[in-house]
Specification:
- It is a single chain.
- The protein is of the alpha+beta class.
- It has one domain.
- It is built from 1 helix and 6 strands.
- Strands 1-5-4-3-2-6 form a 6-stranded antiparallel beta sheet, with helices on one face.
- The N and C termini lie far apart (39 Å).
């Protein structure tokens, strides 16, 4: 599947958007879940731990290495990249199963 060939900033096996140390506040995370048969691809978009960049995390069904993360200086670039990934998925027979917008508490 083409989604597995996306540009990868780094691979991260930690829980997405764990947050910054020593901060007690929330951050908004947008999450899209795409499904094709029994496989799922989850895309998450939110600020990084230091609030200096947007991170787009993709957990594709075909990537045994885990979650891939791409960083962007502005929200528009992050949304454009997400739209490109979504187009690849939809063209490949995937369907949007769920969209969530969630406030995630950063650890104190």
């Amino acid at each position: 599947m083409a989604i597995c060939a996306t540009r990868i900033a780094h691979t991260d096996t930690a829980r997405p958007f764990d947050g910054a140390q020593g901060r007690d506040r929330t951050v908004r995370v947008l999450r899209w879940t795409f499904r094709r048969q029994e496989k799922a691809v989850v895309c998450e978009l939110g600020l990084n731990a230091t609030d200096t960049a947007y991170e787009l995390r993709v957990d594709p069904a075909c990537n045994p290495a885990g979650i891939t993360t791409e960083s962007f200086d502005d929200a528009m670039s992050a949304f454009e990249r997400h739209a490109a990934i979504e187009r690849i998925l939809v063209d490949g027979g995937w369907m949007l199963e769920e969209f969530e917008s969630e406030q995630v508490q950063r650890p104190a």
